[in-house]
Structure formats: C-alpha cells, structure tokens
Design goal:
- The chain is about 0% helix and about 50% strand.
- By secondary structure, the chain is mainly beta.
- It has no helices and nine strands.
- GO terms for molecular function: cytokine activity; tumor necrosis factor receptor binding.
Length: about 120
C-alpha cells in the first residue's frame, strides 16, 4: 500500500503486436535500448462503485503519469482513461500500468492497452 491505496500491476495484457527490442514479462515491458520513448496507456473501466477510476504508468517503481476521472453512478460506469508522454528510459528500465482503486477493467485489446516506442536512441 502506498498512501493508503493498494496499487496492483495490470498483468493480463494480450500481447498482439511487438516490434523492436522491447521485452514483455508478467505485465511489465523491459527496455533494451536507452533513449527517449513515447509511453502510453489506456484503460476501459467498468465499475460504478468507487467515486473515481484511475490508472498509472510506472517507470520501475516511480509513477510517471496518471489519469483519473470521476465515476458518475452505477448506470454510467463505463469509460476510458488515456495517458501518454515522452520519457528518457535506460536500457534496464521497466514500465508497467498500475490501478490504485477498482480493478474492474475490460481487457479488450482495442479498449485497454499500453506500450512504448523509441523516438530517439542515446548512449547511456
């Protein structure tokens, strides 16, 4: 628990497309080439019980980005959150998606996804 909120790494990704030298292990992506990456994620949630939904992108154990939105009510419980941005990653860094509130997400590859692509390699 961090700040009273449990964070679970999302592990049940369906790997449909993989290119380059990224390695996927138990819900994390390990970087092989140091450089600047565009990292992105979207989660489709389906839970009307909590007051908000959120997912976070982590680089190793550090939160890089978070998207949060309010849940209207039980009848309007479906929505998406997207985030993406540029970050420098070392060749041993791992990225992952974590969920601090509900864990009721629709894990369809067209609705919930995450990944990264190399914009500019550097020597580290």
């Amino acid at each position: 628990m961090l700040g009273g909120v449990s964070k679970r790494t999302v592990r049940n990704w369906l790997v449909k497309y993989k290119s380059g030298r990224l390695e996927h292990h138990h819900g994390t992506v390990q970087i092989q080439i140091a450089g600047f990456y565009y990292v992105y994620s979207q989660m489709f949630y389906q839970d009307g019980n909590p007051y908000q939904m959120s997912h976070q992108l982590f680089v190793n154990s550090d939160k890089f980005m978070e998207s949060t939105s309010a849940v209207v009510n039980e009848s309007r419980k479906y929505s998406t959150n997207y985030n993406g941005g540029v970050v420098f990653l070392n060749s041993t860094d791992r990225i992952s998606v974590r969920t601090p509130f509900s864990h009721h997400y629709y894990m369809n590859p067209a609705s919930s996804y995450f990944g990264a692509f190399l914009l500019h390699p550097t020597s580290s």
